[in-house]
Design a protein that fits this description.
Elements lengths: L1 H7 L10 H9 L1 H9 L6 H14 L4 H4 E4 L5 H13 L3 E4 H15 L2 H9 L2 E9 L6 E9 L3 E7 L5 H10 L2 H14 L6 E7 L7 E4 L3 H20 L8 H4 L16 H16 L2
Parallel strand pairs: 1-2, 5-6
Antiparallel strand pairs: 3-4, 4-5, 6-7
Length: 280
Amino acid sequence: MEIEKSKEFINWKNEILSFSSLKSFSDSPDHFISYKKKAFEPTDAMIAGQLVHALILEPDTVAERYVAYDGRRAGKVWEEFEAVAIHENKTVVKKGDFDAAQFTADNIRKNEYVQQMLDNMVAAEKSIEWTDDESGVKLRGFIDVLGKTWFTDFKSGNDTDPDKFVRNANDQKLSLQTALYFDGARANGYKVDEMFIVRFSMSPPYSVVIYQPTETFVQYGHAMKRRLLKKWNEWDGKPAGIEFHTGLKIQPLGIPRWAKPEPDMIVVDAINQNRGNHGK
């Protein structure tokens, strides 16, 4: 009972925040606490995506970190294979996923702009830590590719079409990540003024699309960062739901901002406006 009690009163305010942890806090303090308590078990898709990163950015480490397995993950053969992998501290990847990751990485490298980035980078998988100037909150992150005046993040996903990716980027709060990494790179002495996102698909047609966030995109991320770090400093560390951010015990439910009004709604609004203009 004493062990459970001590777990309940962890001082979460001592945490150094990453983009992922701040993103979870943007949902609610409860989401943040759940994120920190959760034992992370990567899916096969996540592992394959991580392998692509390694094949592109740190190819010399792949043999030491990953091993492919072709077969059913059950029985004596698998148990012996898994035991060796654990002993050697290697991540097991399905043979099909390993081949797909290799093909994807090779395809990404064929992009002339990606190759220019790789040829001119000063660091890969760069770990950074910094303190936010305004809030005093400690932060950390990993930049995939860092150049002298720019940095790049690799994102896997099938939505490479610009219109679809805009919504995906908004859902994933990539503007927040962009703003954080601009701050972090500059705080660590890198005079970056450009950022790129390499969006790649791991299934046919294996699309590779390079995006450059606009100034508005970055400013939006900075505004989100300021709001969330202010709320972080206001938080007392205790469990709280979405009402912590909204200030409402009961949340209003309306149509999304992007939804077009129904024709009947336009007619009703026009009628109401007409009544207002001509009196009762």
